[in-house]
Design brief:
Radius of gyration: 15 Å
Strand content: 5-15%
Order of helices and strands: HHEHHEEH
Helix content: 40-55%
Mean pLDDT: 89
Shape: globular
Number of helices: 5
């Protein structure tokens, strides 16, 4: 994982040059290009959840889910907070939820042979 990957919530006044923006976008999209991670992000788009809940939302083992969540956390795409002994995960920002929703909408259109639209 590239050091640039940690998305620190840069605002337009702090935007990187176009090359760096594209590189980071490629890395984000690369993280979404995994079935388990996409399922985890889709579920987290519905609200916070712990590892047990997230394991139920995928076909993956608890160990695999934990490893994917660690990767998403290191990339700065999800946040964590402690709730007693549980770790609760959440999406870092709504942009990611919308990106996942749009990717799934594209899939729905392709599977259902629906016409494109804006």
């Amino acid at each position: 994982m590239n050091a640039r990957m940690h998305l620190s919530g840069a605002h337009p006044s702090h935007q990187a040059d176009e090359g760096e923006r594209l590189a980071v976008a490629v890395e984000v999209l690369g993280l979404l290009a995994d079935r388990t991670r996409l399922a985890l992000l889709r579920r987290l788009g519905e609200g916070e959840a712990d590892v047990t809940t997230l394991t139920g939302a995928t076909d993956a083992t608890r160990t695999s889910v934990s490893q994917h969540l660690a990767r998403l956390r290191l990339a700065g795409l999800v946040t964590t907070r402690k709730e007693g002994r549980r770790v609760v995960y959440a999406l870092r920002h709504g942009h990611l939820r919308r990106l996942v929703d749009e990717a799934l909408s594209i899939a729905d259109h392709q599977i259902g042979h629906l016409p494109p639209h804006d």
